[in-house]
Amino acid sequence: MSADLPEAFEPFALEVGGATLAGVETGEGLPVVFLHAGVCDKRMWARQMVAVADIGWHAIAYDRRGYGETTSPDEAFNHVDDLEALLEALDIHAAVFVGCSLGGGLALDFALRHPGRVIGLVLIGTSVTGAPWNSTEAEAMIEAAEEDAFERGDLEMLNKVQAHEWLDGPRGQSGRVGGEARKLFLEMNALALSKPDLSQDEQRPSAWHRMSEVAAPSLLLVGDQDFTTLIDRHEYLSEEMPNAFAAVLEDVAHIPSLERPDLVNSMILQFLDAIEGSGSAEDDDESDI
């Protein structure tokens, strides 16, 4: 298991098709499933997992195909199907899902497919399948640098540009976030960039115009240093999702679990306490669709 994760975490491996999904879990109680961003892996959630386990929840995180310690051949797959297989293997019917970026998009797609299996959602700078993307002029310049590094096959430069994009934020100075957070981001993203391409990821149906159907209690978070589109999307979701509470985090970009773990922990714990107090955690018998 990675040295970046606490020794108390129990590793597990799950075979799905030809893939082996690598994950960790800690704590006991109702499950909280953490879904990582597309420039990270399960290690981005280490401090949040410790925090929720300490107050009596069962924390689970895993590396999706193409990330971290998970291995996969280039075969047809669907991330929602993989998540379903993971929950079945761990005997989890319903859970709270915490997702950042692409991890949030996966949580939303799962919620639309299985509304009765979602106790609550925490979505941070979330992706939404089929959502539009628009860039400001300054953001487009960073995206052009990313595309140039990708086309040249310069993975080291690509990693640095993506650290600026997602860790520092497109509005911030490159290197704004340093220390262990930057070191871990670069390690996680370098590992993802080095993985073989998976060309058969099945396209999931657009969820953009279905957000009003996501009725689970939801906490929506976005950093004010994130991309303009993601901040605008945050406002749209806060209006469309009927049981959402939304907050903008000051001086934070796209990966606040690394940049401000104390703040993210506090907000997740408050949300879990509210869910437990409302009885929603016990109401998991709604039929699936």
From TrEMBL:
SUPFAM superfamilies: alpha/beta-Hydrolases. Gene3D superfamilies: alpha/beta hydrolase. It comes from the Bacteria. Signal peptide: none annotated. The keyword Hydrolase applies. One of its GO terms (molecular function) is hydrolase activity. Keywords: Hydrolase. Transmembrane segments: none annotated. InterPro entries: AB_hydrolase_1, AB_hydrolase_fold, AB_hydrolase_sf, Epox_hydrolase-like. Residues 31-261 form the AB hydrolase-1 domain. One of its GO terms (cellular component) is membrane. PANTHER family: AB HYDROLASE SUPERFAMILY PROTEIN YCLE (PTHR43798:SF31), MONOACYLGLYCEROL LIPASE (PTHR43798). This is Alpha/beta hydrolase. It comes from Devosia litorisediminis.
